[in-house]
Amino acid sequence: MQNKGKYYITTAIAYTSGKPHIGNSYEIVLADAIARYKRKDGYDVHFQTGSDEHGQKIETRAIEAGCASPKEFVDQVSDTIKGLWNLMDTSYDRFIRTTDDDHVKQVQKIFKKFYDQGDIYKGSYKGMYCTECEAFYTESQLVDGKCPECGGPVHPAEEEAYFFKMSKYADRLIEHINTHPEFIQPVARKNEMMNNFLLPGLQDLCVSRTSFKWGIPVDFDDKHVVYVWLDALTNYITGIGYDADGNSTEQYKKYWPADLHLIGKDIIRFHTIYWPIFLMALGEPLPKQVFGHPWLLQGGEKMSKSKGNVIYADDLVSLFGVDPVRYFVLHEMPFDNDGVITWELMVERFNSDLANTLGNLVNRTIAMSNKYLGGVLADKGVAEDVDADLKAVVTGCYDKVEKKMDELRVADALTEIFALFKRCNKYIDETEPWVLGKDEAKKDRLSTVLYNLVESISIGAALLDPFMPETAEKIRQQLNSPERDFDSLDKFGVYASGTKVVETPEMLFARKDLKDVLEKAAEITRKQKEDFEKSQAIAAENLYKAGLGPAPAKAEDKADDAAVIDISAKEEIEYDDFGKMQFQVGEIIACEAVEKSKKLLCSQVKIGSQVKQIVSGIRKYYTPEEMVGKKVMVLVNLKPAKLAGVLSEGMLLCAEDAEGNLALMTPEKPMPSGAEIC
């Protein structure tokens, strides 16, 4: 095998907030297919993946899970991630954790180096913060008032922080991107980064936090922990032995710069703007390429536990097996558009591509070899014109696959390999071995035909190996074919004449019944929903115990949610009648019990810039202390009246159940005081 040099490939390290779904698992399978392909193609490959374990969200998740510490929590989740990666038969060389000692020490050194050379300064940050993404945004960066990355809620936050001078390196990065068109792929991602971030001008980046403790401490200012993205991104160099003091290992000198950072399109900004700038500040070369792959969507929607549409790799494997799942996620993901996964599509691909095109091809080739030739294959040299076309397709397949893999068009590479198998099936139809087997005079032609098939399948199996390694090995075992180097795939006739195939072929893929799969999938979904609801209940209870959340709803309260109440209809009103009423959101800033009443509370309610005093008969259901801080719905223009001698200037809206219990009506989402209810 020709030595083509080194190849260093990484995935984004998986965030330890929970179990990765199949969309997350796709990335590790994609990276593994590329790594395996490069190894077979003659490269010295180093493949790194891992888990990202710090941050405020992890700190909260640990409390929700009832863990004694964030470290206990991430140990559990990291094991789960690693278990899934192993289940999917991925051949990584290192699984790095950002809690690993070698990584922690280097992150502290890197932070100090940036500070000493003037790239980092201390200031304070005021902006809108997304806990889910652990990122600050300006008002102009929000989309409909929400996080531009995850679409989740943001809240105002201000804290002391260290900042990295991004603008110092922006021009150099722009020049690098312009002079290295292969750096960001697909091209649409490059255009997005240039037009939305770099060309308008970069803001300095917050690189430390003080509002939580679960992170790598800034060793010269222990009130701060390193911002999770600076911590996480540096894993690509710390994991292979980078040292900020100049004592990097031979492994680092050999493999850096990375040949490919494989990441999801949602974190392209961090990898193509922040990470290159960090490397420039360190004086290190930039990675050769960053590929922001698309998402795998469940029936066209992004997977979410709250939506109940999450599919996990281990559930898919339990129904289809490892290699079929690998095949599906690799085959169904376009180069630059989102892919779709459904149970129905999985069954269709399994039956048509795997059971029929490939499995049936191998099975009947071996069966015919045993039936007509006693299982012994030999090239008798009785060739016909149809053989030449088969050989051309088979021996030309590697070059087509190589071109697609160089462009990271992995789905297209798989399509080329299955075109080879389809050509083999067509060859069977063209040569009709079952007809040749009836004529003793054509036995040598039959032997040649079956030899050609076995040789073609052997070449196809060699190409399939990086994508479906277990299947490729099973094919080799059944054909008694040695593992083929890519260097030999342009040569037809390597399979040794006189080799005997197995007597009883193993069915590679037994067809799936759609109804059966859907029934099992429904049970998986039901169990997931049940587990999710349990985990949410446990999380709410643990947050409450930690003083970080409200008291969880009781079971009887939840049961009441399903109840309905019918009340007598009042006389219909005109729209103009309704239009006379003014409803707004109010914030209760003070509340006290009315002395002369056992039922009334007197609240001071801020409505926009005004404060109104409102008396409500809700003392049985709320304490004055509970009321303060609540956002409530208020009928503002109700004529003032005195209740128990106390002036009331409006009405708080409540709902009443069949037993007469009251509950304040509150906005579903955060709304400012004074917002109109319409």
Low-confidence sequence ranges? none
Q: SS-based structural class?
A: alpha/beta
Helix content: 40-55%
How much strand? 15-25%
In DSSP terms (H or I, runs of 4 or more residues), the helix count works out at 23
Annotation, overall tally of beta strands: 26
Any overview of this molecule?
By secondary structure, this protein is an alpha/beta fold. It has 23 helices and 26 strands. Strand 18 (583-593) and strand 19 form a beta hairpin. The model has no long low-confidence stretch (mean pLDDT 92).
Please describe the topology of this protein.
Layout: E1 6-11, E2 14-15, H1 22-40, E3 44-52, H2 56-64, H3 70-87, E4 94-97, H4 101-116, E5 120-130, E6 135-137, E7 155-164, H5 167-179, E8 184-185, H6 187-198, E9 205-206, E10 208-209, E11 225-226, H7 228-233, H8 235-238, H9 250-255, E12 260-264, H10 268-282, E13 290-293, E14 296-298, H11 313-320, H12 322-331, E15 339-341, H13 343-373, E16 376-377, H14 385-395, H15 397-406, H16 410-431, H17 433-436, H18 443-464, H19 469-479, E17 499-500, H20 514-545, H21 555-561, H22 575-579, E18 583-593, E19 601-607, E20 610-616, H23 624-627, E21 631-635, E22 641-643, E23 646-648, E24 651-652, E25 654-656, E26 662-664
Parallel strand pairs: 1-3, 1-12, 2-3, 3-4, 8-13, 12-13, 14-15
Antiparallel strand pairs: 5-6, 5-7, 7-9, 10-11, 16-17, 18-19, 18-21, 19-20, 21-24, 22-23, 25-26
Short structural summary:
By secondary structure, the protein is of the alpha/beta class. It has 23 helices and 26 strands.
Label this structure with key terms.
seven-stranded parallel beta sheet, 678 residues, alpha/beta, five-stranded antiparallel beta sheet
